[in-house]
Specification:
alpha+beta; three-stranded mixed β-sheet; 5 strands; 2 domains; two-stranded antiparallel ribbon; about 40% helix
């Protein structure tokens, strides 16, 4: 099993949604992918340990074999099979109160996002282009860096900023980011890890950790060089 960029994108989207109830159709629509690909992303995310199943809301047949989910017709609502309340979120391996079939594994996903994903999906700089701002140039980081810093953008025909192009994690990223401000922030932080300087990477590490795994202890800050 090889993890794909869209699998990481789906996992970040589930972080952005938090405890919201969702369907595969909505997941696909907001990320600009097909429903079948959304199912496949969830399956690979589970296999990689980036996601966890909520066994309290999945029938035994689906909990034991996620493939049966992919072959089933999606209901009009959600995969809610019981009104039994799950235990509160706590240590890794426990599950949160949720009506969704899966949820992010906060610790594993944060570890991958901060230390592995930039190597699995390296940042590729492209020629100057007009596009959607990313990395430290994204709106979420306005005023955090001195004027005159090099802007980074995802090349896009509907973009309004000119800067150094950065190949997005997945072709649908500019569209997906426009649908969800929190997802946009996480994707821009990830790009700061991929193409940013030392100060930008340090900021991105701290903020991305807080967004994905807020319960994790904060690392002690040291000097930043570069």
């Amino acid at each position: 099993m090889q993890l794909k960029p869209q699998d990481f994108l789906v996992a970040l989207k589930l972080v952005a949604w938090g405890d919201q109830r969702w369907t595969y159709a909505r997941l696909a629509q907001e990320l600009g992918i097909s429903v079948s690909e959304a199912h496949a992303c969830i399956k690979r995310g589970l296999q990689a340990g980036l996601l966890l199943q909520n066994y309290a809301v999945i029938p035994p047949s689906l909990a034991s074999d996620i493939d049966s989910v992919m072959g089933a017709q999606e209901p009009a609502g959600i995969y809610r099979m019981t009104r039994k309340r799950a235990r509160p979120a706590g240590a890794a391996g426990e599950f949160a109160a949720s009506d969704n079939a899966v949820r992010p594994h906060a610790h594993h996903l944060a570890e991958f996002a901060l230390h592995g994903a930039k190597y699995a999906f390296p940042g590729v700089r492209l020629p100057l282009a007009v596009g959607v701002p990313t990395s430290h140039s994204a709106p979420a980081f306005a005023g955090m860096f001195a004027p005159g810093s090099t802007d980074f953008v995802w090349p896009h025909p509907n973009g309004a900023v000119r800067g150094v192009g950065v190949e997005p994690l997945h072709p649908s990223v500019p569209f997906a980011a426009n649908q969800d401000a929190k997802l946009y922030e996480m994707l821009a932080l990830f790009d700061a890890l991929r193409v940013g300087k030392a100060r930008e990477r340090g900021m991105a590490l701290e903020r991305l950790q807080a967004l994905i795994d807020p319960a994790a202890p904060r690392p002690e800050k040291g000097p930043v060089y570069g």
